[in-house]
Amino acid sequence: MHGPSHFLRHLTGFLLRRHLLHTKPGRRYVPRNDDVQKKDNGEKHMFLYKSWGQHVLTNPRVLDTIVRKSNIKPTDTVLEIGPGTGNLTLRLLQAAQRVVAVELDARMVEILRKRVAEHGLEDQLTVICKDALKTDFPQFDLVVANIPYGISSPLVAKLVFGANPFRSATLLLQKEFARRLLANPGDSEFNRLAVNVKLVAEVEFVMDVSKRDFLPCPKVDSSVVTIRPKAEVPDVDLNEWCAFTRTCFSKKNKTLGATFKHKRRVMELWRLSNLRGSETGNAVSGCNYDCSYDEDKEEEEGNESDEGNGDPYPGSEMEMSLFKEKINGVLKLGGFDDKRPAKLSGKELLQLLSLFNQAGIHFHDQAKPRNADNIAVAASYST
Question: Which pLDDT score is estimated for 24?
Answer without folding.
Answer: 34
